[in-house]
Amino acid sequence: MSDTVRATSPNVPSENQDAQAVESYLLSTLDPVGRGGRFWILGLLAVVAVGAAAWVTQLVNGLRVTEMRNYVSWGAYMGNFVFFIGISHAGTLISAILRVTDAGWRRPITRMAEAITVFALIVGAPMVLIDMGRPDRVMNVFIYGRFQSPILWDIVSITTYLTGSILYLYVAMIPDMPILARHARERGRSPRLVRLYEMMSLGYRESAEHRRRLALALGAMAAIIIPVAVSVHTVVSWVFGMTLRPGWHSTIFGPYFVVGAIFSGTAAIITAMAIFRRAYRLERYLLPLHFRHLGKLLLVLALLYAYFTLSEYLTAWYGGIEADRRLMELLAGNTAYGLTFWLWVVFGLFAPIGFLLFPGRRSIRAIVAASVLVNIGMWVKRYLIVVPTLQTPFIPAEAAGITPWYFPSVVEWAITAGAFAAFLLLFTLFSRLFPILSIWETAEDVDEARARHVRVPAVAAPQPGSAVRPAMLLVALIVGGLTLLAPAIPTNAVGAQEAARVELRRASEGEEDVLVAAVTVGGVPAPGVTVEFFAYRHLGLLALGEDETLDDGTAAVSFPRGLPGNLRGDIRFRAAVLSPDSLAGAAAETVMSGGVPARQDAGEPPRALWSTRAPTGLLVGITVLLLCVWSTYAFTIWQLMRLRGIKGG
Amino acid sequence: MVIDLAACDGCGKCVTACSDKHFLPPDREWLRVFKMKDSENGAPYWFPRPCFHCDDPPCTRVCPVGATFKRQDGIVLVDNERCIGCRFCMAACPYSVRTFNWGHPDNPSDAVARGYSPEWGYPRRVGTTEKCDFCPDMARLGKLPHCAAACPMGAIWFGDENEDAVTSGPDKEHSATGANEGPGAAGDRQTVRLSQLLRDRGGYRYLEDLGTKPRVYYLPPVNRRYPAPGEPDAEKGAPVRGEQR
């Protein structure tokens, strides 16, 4: 696949390259695509179209066209979501961390890394939308959003991350924009394209003040995007971790996902580097050194991920809690998932480690092979996180004669393929519009190298600065409404019989309170009559006991202690004659005090995770975090807006 | 709700009644009867599982739009006019209670005619979740939920905890259909004090350690009134008169 994109062969730069040479060489990657490139783009478009058609099928028929069912209710789409959000971490790591630590070798790869972030997010985030049963109601999330739900955390943090990474990618592209505008004008490209480049340059020129401002903006973004990226994948993991399911409810899920994300992201960037290197003949700038450095990073991350995996699953297996044990049997035992899991361990984890571990064998080919294995493996791993857990509910479905099973349907595969094609297509088109290697940073690299060897004073490199001044206010509001529906209490008609008459009252008998029923027949007390006593409850009559009347015609049972009544503590009692049959049916009902008053319901539900109103601490925490991040964005934008006003240069 | 595991013989009439009255499509059951066996040498027993209407419901915690909610009377309901179909609640429910309308539902005309309310959950809509609702529409009428009313063994008790009372026993409507047979059916409903029932019979809640505070109690399957599942004379749908407790 690496040969499919090929620009018309650019000029080979001269031996003693300088900034000019870098510029003209990298600009040549924007030359019109060749036949291979056209086929590549058309092929991707075709796959995207198939995926789109599959989605339309799903929109029309509902999620029935997937293989997801009531037990396994999440599947490939969630796997894709986690995978794409994962590889989006490439940009953050390579670019931001290396920029903050001022690692010089980063320069030719930052642009590519930042672009992966943006496009992976653009493709990954809508996966949730595709997974939704009612995508038409997506606005409900904004109308009724509850910040107790990790989904809201996801939406907020991914929106923040996408905004930030677009801003970050853009800021680092600004110095290239005047060059691109000039180049497009010289080549006689469409005026609209020239205008686009000019607009995006924001009036940037090569001057000390412009450079200083840009460095300030870039430094702020590089610093803030790292915690934002960490938070994003942590929150993604919490969609699983916050549930009580075996295999998901794990304290290390946040860091496990973050490491997995950086791991797969680094592999993604190595793969992308290899493809662009071949397609655009960038061997001069993407050196074996870059592959080796990133390869070492990948090795460290692979070992870290192996460590996390061992820690996660060995604990579950060794501890052997019932539900965990069943999950481990499914995930790593003699099942289809077990086979997949161990294949992943061998080919997705150990093989890459093997490829990367021995310095003598650490060729570009080996490093790229390891990266491709990691990419495939991490998609499989995400799938194995989502599906087997859902197949292992606490109450085994097998006990009801059901065997939960899931394998993605044709529609799900088509949409998945479409998503990958869309990602590659966006990446390809981006690299047609903007050089995939940052011109100014690569030139800086060359300058620096010359400065070291030829002692020519280099152009002052931008000093990463990081000033964060909170300046924005964000207010989050939750709207929700509940209706309290108080059950109505029915009133029963009192049945009476001609012959017998029952009177019901409360009396004290020594220390005890009793319910007394006096039975009379024709005004005369009736002895030897069995009377049963009840208390009215909403759904039935609570039997309190029965008693036979004495000579004075009274029967009694203990007054029920601690029995709840209505708000005032009133209870409706009933006394009914059971025998003899001639008198049966005679009854009396009386409402009496003496019950425990029912609790008056509080007007508003408490602040709780399950209620309509979120706990105050949660809201404050989210607001403070967002304030920090968005004020940094505002600072960056403010710096950019002032670029145009700078005189001189 | 209190479910007497000593009385349940796994006949499944509760499931049938629930499914009929809620017009459930054949791919789902709101109430499901599991054949459980807790340990190797333990005796198997039938385990009806409705929604537990937890006091700290994990499903309601995670709902992003408040489409599933807990009322002040403790009942957890789903509003299928607001549900966005993310199925987070299904993933969060540790008891696998919730079901989903994966395709366009086939609503019978009776269901359509009644109009929608979260209190009965139909007519159902594509791409939304649903679950056992404790039949609040029946409670309004002073009637038991359909499952409790249909149980010939009187194994399902239902009531208002504020009243400290639970009621079981078939409805007249159900006894007319012949469901009113078996030892639990004295013909009438029976109401007992909840606190006393739980105390006397060792009532417990399923998976108490998860901290969800279910509102359904189980009475352990001791001194059963029927042969355990798997025993020679155990036959589904044929309750056997056993010794009274």
Describe the structure.
- The complex is a heterodimer of chains A (about 650) and B (about 240).
- Chain A contains 19 helices and eight strands.
- Chain A is of the alpha+beta class.
- Among the domains of chain A are: about 120 residues, no CATH class; about 90 residues, Immunoglobulin-like, CATH 2.60.40.10.
- In chain A, a hairpin with a 4-residue loop joins strand 4 and strand 5.
- In chain A, helix 4 runs antiparallel to helix 5.
- Chain A is elongated and about 125 Å long.
- Chain A starts with 18 loop residues before the first helix and ends in an 8-residue tail after the last helix.
- Chain B is an alpha+beta fold and about 240 residues long.
- Chain B contains eight helices and eleven strands.
- In chain B, the strands form five sheets. Chain B has a three-stranded mixed β-sheet with strand order 8-1-11. In chain B, strands 2-3 form a two-stranded antiparallel ribbon. In chain B, strands 4-5 form a two-stranded antiparallel ribbon.
- The C terminus of chain B is likely disordered.
CATH architecture level-2 label of chain B: 2-Layer Sandwich
Helix content of chain A: 40-55%
Number of domains of chain B: 1
What structural class do helix, strand and pairing data of chain A support?
alpha+beta
Which of globular, elongated, flat, extended, rod-shaped describes the shape of chain B?
globular
Topology readout:
The complex is a heterodimer of chains A (649) and B (245).
Chain A: H1 19-27, H2 35-61, H3 76-87, H4 89-100, H5 110-124, H6 126-131, H7 140-144, H8 150-173, H9 176-186, H10 191-201, H11 208-241, H12 253-279, H13 288-319, H14 322-332, H15 336-357, H16 364-390, H17 410-433, H18 439-454, E1 500-509, E2 512-521, E3 524-525, E4 530-536, E5 541-548, E6 554-558, E7 571-579, E8 587-592, H19 616-641
Antiparallel strand pairs in A: 1-2, 2-3, 2-6, 4-5, 4-7, 7-8
Chain B: E1 2-4, H1 13-21, E2 32-36, E3 45-49, H2 58-62, E4 68-70, E5 76-78, H3 88-92, E6 99-100, H4 109-114, E7 129-130, H5 136-140, H6 146-150, E8 156-157, E9 165-168, H7 172-176, E10 190-193, H8 194-201, E11 217-219
Parallel strand pairs in B: 1-11
Antiparallel strand pairs in B: 1-8, 2-3, 4-5, 6-7, 9-10
